[in-house]
Design brief:
Length: 171
């Protein structure tokens, strides 16, 4: 069991090391569960162990967890990557090559809302590139349904809004 958990941890660290953006729980799960390496509950336990061991960082936005590798995780992977079989590494590399653009797009445009102290709803809209925010915009709306609609709309309109703001600010 310990050897299996170690392998799952190394697979996750390897996945996170292959991208320069966070991966969601769903993106990590898709690969590991599709290949039948382990079950969902073991995977969640392994992710928690990696976070507790400060090898990965987790950020949660609108019930979605985003993972990035930390320096300690990179060090562990550097020393133990050879414990991932060449076959699994090839499968991971192929999966990342085939899905990297979609995976990046899935995590680069984010929107969330919360009820603020005045009783209105603050909607935070972000576009990320790598680990930096290109735009981080917060607007306030009076109703929750408006906040939800703004979150849904952000993904579709973020690029044109970014261009507009950039043009207006910089002429």
């Amino acid at each position: 069991m310990a050897d299996s958990d170690t392998l799952y941890k190394l697979i996750i660290l390897y996945m996170l090391s292959r991208v320069d953006f966070p991966l969601t729980n769903a993106q990590i799960s898709d690969f590991i569960l599709e290949k039948d390496y382990t079950d969902f509950f073991t995977l969640q336990s392994v992710l928690a162990d990696l976070e507790d061991g400060q090898m990965i960082h987790t950020e949660t936005i609108r019930n979605c967890s985003y993972y990035t590798i930390l320096e300690a995780g990179e060090e562990v992977l550097k020393y133990f990557h050879n414990r991932i079989s060449p076959t699994i590494r090839r499968e991971l590399d192929q999966y990342m090559t085939d899905n990297k653009i979609q995976m990046r797009d899935d995590v680069s445009v984010l929107a969330d809302y919360y009820k603020n102290t005045e009783g209105d709803y603050s909607v935070r809209c972000v576009v990320k590139e790598k680990l930096a925010n290109l735009i981080d915009l917060t607007i306030t709306v009076p109703y929750e349904d408006q906040a939800k609609a703004a979150c849904r709309s952000w993904k579709e309109h973020s690029q044109s809004i970014y261009k507009f703001v950039f043009k207006e600010l910089l002429g």
